[in-house]
Write a structure and sequence with these properties.
Blueprint: E1 4-12, H1 19-28, E2 34-35, E3 48-49, H2 75-78, H3 83-98, H4 103-106, E4 111-116, H5 121-134, H6 143-147, H7 151-159, E5 166-169, H8 175-188, E6 194-201, H9 205-208, E7 242-250, H10 251-257, E8 263-272, H11 285-298, E9 307-309, H12 316-330, E10 338-340, H13 343-346, H14 353-367, E11 399-406, E12 410-417
Parallel strand pairs: 4-5, 4-6, 9-10, 9-11
Antiparallel strand pairs: 1-7, 1-8, 2-3, 6-7, 8-12, 11-12
Helix pairs in contact: 3-7, 8-14, 11-12
Length: about 425
């Protein structure tokens, strides 16, 4: 099969809004958590979130939104966007520039786009309330386009004149990892020469707070310990939003354009738990199978893996389930790969997580570092045999795995390799 490479990245995240700031935050373990103002009410038990910085998108009228001056978004584009799509649009502009792509590279039959998002519950709720209370014809003509789950791919495909493959992925927190995997297949099979993979979420009250009803969110009021994967005291995840765009290109395109890629996407695997609608299999069986399939696809042995970017969200069950899957795969070589969860810094981006953390892995492979697993004060004994660094390691590794898991037991593992 032809090789596939990551050639560009774009970030709007809680830890930075470009490649340089994100890389710096990962290296220095700077987190994006804060006491989130909308949560500071007696009736709301959750206090901490990890919002993106530099954007104000809390109005239902997009003309009231503010964002960094370097981005110009026409009024007619904003009318069809939710906050998630605005983030994705800005990240897409970054990724196009980072990959050194011209208009002809972006808009042609062999360049496609896969996107993942839960939509904008914030705008959907507003639109439905307006429809029921003021009448059907008082809704915005573009209210549906701006709020449903496909809003990110609708907007980006139209605005960037994407003419190749395009669709959205909906597998909860595994969504954009699925997007990366299937985009690789499109390129490996010769159907496309370039794919944009996008993950984006609002990261506001309406997209985060409903998880409190599941008892899935941390109730800590201290941003320094609210997200602490693998710590014995972890009590749930911290919600975040933003967007990441990953540019994937074929080996021929990389050679034709003379660009230096971040890394190679060597292969991937997926499997389902077949266990529970919301909870990971306690033995990590689906994730284990996804990892094994990813290694087989990549022709990589467990002994060659130098780092695992864990899905670990800081929930009691999920972190242990993943630890069991990692233990089962690596067996005698368990002490070799470094294992960390960057969600300790960013919070959990839901469908954004897979693409965002793929971007983090690409940065680490290019720049020669492995981010530490932050905020661990008392490592859970059930994870003590994993090689979990508490600080960032300035170390070049050759092979990285990125794990993602979602509702219904959807599991994805991506394998990335260093180039040059």
């Amino acid at each position: 099969m032809p090789k596939v490479f990551i050639t560009g990245l774009g970030f709007i995240t809680s830890i930075g809004n470009d490649v340089a700031s994100v890389a710096r935050s990962l290296r220095e373990l700077r987190h994006g958590m804060e006491l989130y103002p909308p949560f500071q009410k007696p009736e709301i038990p959750v206090k901490v979130a990890a919002p993106v910085k530099g954007f104000q998108t809390d109005s239902t009228d997009s003309e009231d939104w503010t964002y960094p001056e370097k981005y110009t978004v026409k009024r007619e584009l904003l009318r069809g966007m939710g906050p998630n799509t605005l983030y994705a649009y800005c990240a897409m502009l970054q990724a196009v520039e980072d990959a050194k792509l011209g208009e002809a590279d972006v808009s042609n039959d062999l360049t496609g786009l896969y996107a993942s998002s839960g939509g904008s519950p914030f705008l959907m709720g507003h639109m439905l309330n307006r429809m029921h209370n003021q009448g059907v014809m008082r809704c915005s003509p573009l209210g549906i386009v701006a709020s449903i789950a496909g809003t990110v791919n609708f907007n980006l495909v139209a605005h960037f004149k994407i003419k190749g493959a395009s669709t959205g992925f909906s597998s909860a927190c595994a969504s954009s990892a699925h997007g990366v995997g299937f985009a690789c297949d499109e390129i490996m099979l010769g159907r496309q020469k370039r794919m944009f993979v996008v993950g984006a979420e609002d990261g506001n009250v309406d997209s985060i707070l409903p998880f409190a009803g599941m008892r899935a969110l941390s109730l800590q009021a201290d941003p320094e310990i609210a997200s602490r994967p693998f710590d014995v005291g972890r009590d749930g995840f911290v919600g975040t939003g933003g967007a990441t765009v990953v540019v994937l290109e074929s080996e021929d395109e990389v050679a034709r354009r003379g660009v230096k890629p971040y890394c190679e996407v060597a292969g991937w695997g997926q499997a389902s738990d077949g266990h529970n609608v919301a909870i990971s299999h306690p033995e990590g069986t689906g994730l284990r199978k996804a990892v094994e399939r990813a290694l087989t696809s990549s022709r990589i042995s467990p002994e060659e893996v130098g780092y695992v970017n864990a899905h670990a969200t800081s929930t009691q069950i999920g972190d242990i389930s993943e630890a069991k899957a990692i233990r089962a795969v690596f067996g005698p070589s368990l002490s070799r790969p470094l294992v960390s969860s960057t969600k300790a810094l960013t919070g959990h981006g839901l469908s954004l997580a897979g693409a965002m953390e793929t971007g983090f892995c690409a940065l680490g492979l290019r720049d020669g570092f492995v981010p530490g697993s932050a905020h661990i004060r008392n490592l859970d004994p059930a994870c003590a045999d994993l090689n979990i660094p508490l600080t960032t390691q300035e170390k070049k590794v050759d092979v990285v795995m990125n794990n993602s898991s979602g509702f219904g037991g959807a599991n994805v593992c991506l394998v990335l390799k260093r180039v040059g």
